Please model this.
Amino acid sequence: MKNTSPVEVTSCATPVTPVEYSELTPIEQEKILLLQQAILESVALGGDHLAMINSVCKLEEQLLPNSVGSVMLLDANREHLNVYAAPSIPATGQAQLNGLKPGPNAGSCGNVIYRQEPVFVSDTLTDPRWNDLHDLAVNFGLMACWSMPIRSSGGAVVGTFALSSFERRSPAPFHRKMLEIGASIIGIVLDQFRAQESLHLSAQVFDGSNEAIMITDTEQRIIRVNRAFSKVTQYGSEEVIGKTPKILSSGRHDMSYFQAMWQSVDNFGHWQGEIWNKRKDGEVFPEWLSISVVRDADGKLTHYVGMFSDITDRKAIEAKVEFLAYHDALTGIPNRVLLGDRMKQGIAQTTREQNMMAVCYLDLDGFKPINDSFGHEAGDQVLIEIAKRIGGTIRGGDTLSRLGGDEFVVLLLGIERGEECVATLNRLLDVVAQPLTIGKHIIQVSASIGVCIYPLNDEDPDTLLRHADQAMYKAKESGKNCFHIYDPALDQRAREQNDLLKSVSLGLEQGQFELYYQPKIDLRTQKLKGVEALIRWHHPVRGMLAPGEFLRYVENTDVDVQLGEWVISSALAQLTQWQSAGLSLDVSVNISGYHLESARFVERLQQQLVKYPALAKGSFQIEVLETVALNDIATVRNIIEACRQLGVEFALDDFGTGYSSLTYLSKLPVDVLKIDQSFVRAMLDDKGGMAIVQGIIALAKAFERKVVAEGIEAQGQYRALLDMGCEVGQGYLIARPMPAAEIMNWEFTV
Model:
């Protein structure tokens, strides 16, 4: 049933405003540039004008899936519209459109002519502007239609360019920009065709582009550039014709960068990305460059087309806006907004690493008299100098922020013991209290610091900051130039940690620790491939303790190293016993980053291995967390290389949780990637988790690494991993950790 209700339409007295590039996202801008590039390539090849118009329709259809493009032109009397190009609309549909008389109910295209402006209909079945074409919409399933006027060079509307969709939808700025570009180019093509100036057409589109364009032959010799090229590079066309694009090289990119770029061009026919080039006057500038190949009708390469734009202003504006949004304008350090983000990250990191974060609220003592006596400029200089001093005192991973006035906040991360926090606070008090020379004046201030500890105060960032602020006022009440800790449990926790360290050392002396072993099997043959050694503590009071109940408290201490050495020694002895008994398998042990990077680690490992000369090479494996490897990749890489020379393999544990890049992975000489159990558990219920697991397996194969899946707890997970090509797995479905004595007779049973 046709809709006869009135509908609000845009008055021709207030035409639709053209879309600016600034309204588009960076990705949409790139797509628009690629569309322009493709159209220009089509024009550069010349040929039949109708083929060019059909090409525009097809290119825009690709950017709007489930749609068809069409061009309709007015007849000689300017009374009716007829289909001129519609490569994806069947002949029967074109026939029904021919002879369309423009009017208020004549569909999107009829309304464009009637109103002399763009018309966007999101629902053809209910919009009264489609009443005359309602049956056509139903028969062909056209749900939406957006139409743009095609204008001649004189500005007269001569036809329409439309995208009709098989689903209801409204146009975004990106879609409107597509239509604007298509209608504009089609108008130019039609103008020049009627004037029989096809050669002039190519030149007009080429030289009229706001993007710099460079065309080279197959040997990359420049044969043509447009005016925008000369404007951006400062080179006239006569200065570059016959030369190669190397004339623009800035020297910032190495040979591998260009090899990868041209490999993409050769393999895929195009490349795009950010590159730094050099103008004639020597100025280096950033540009967004797209390179495409041009082929003749037989597919033979004839030219390369490069299109680029100078993005210097855009990058400078983006950098300035982003910096000012997150940094204090006076001191250049993070502001309250960035502090909030850093606090959220700090809470997540502290929770993950099971240590502490200190939120330190610092207020200067005696700052107001400086402004009153010497002026605000002197006060500003004091704040800048204090910020520099504090920044030079804290570690690189910590954060210094200015909230405003003379108030600063310092985030101290990775605190293992209360003594660490106290020592840092005393250093802060010392550096702030040092005299300052401002102009001819020697000025001295001090600081009152309030401290709140997470997770002793398990609160959100705002609450932590408020508690630290309250503690700061307590410090001022206590005489200033001191600190006050909000949570009194800090000292108690430090004492408890020291007691536990002593208990672990005593447990090592008294033989309270034991290694359990969790089997790893070949997922296809279901045969035992190896075991992972997992420490257990037979605590004299608390009973059997799993690693999570005590390991985090010994991290980054001498006890950490002692415990790790005991694990290596025990695992090597047990592996030798198994191999002597005829059991062929490998054993992996978990080593902390602190232990791995401790002094003489490789030397001590070699001394252990010498005791077991019959040990099969590659049967002993060390597992390190991915996050440990990324913290100091150069040092860890050297240690791993030295250990591998001794016949020890390395596995990257919990892979996928440390955000490592392909570059880092290629630099780490590890043998095995272990898929973190969180991804394995989630993969059947989460498409993203499944994609991550598939990606890790593919990555392992690409870098010729072995792969092990952790945390297999269900048959569905087992089958899915097997289907994805995972070689080895472990988890509770296969076996729980068990004493060494049970491994000899263990077999996997479903």
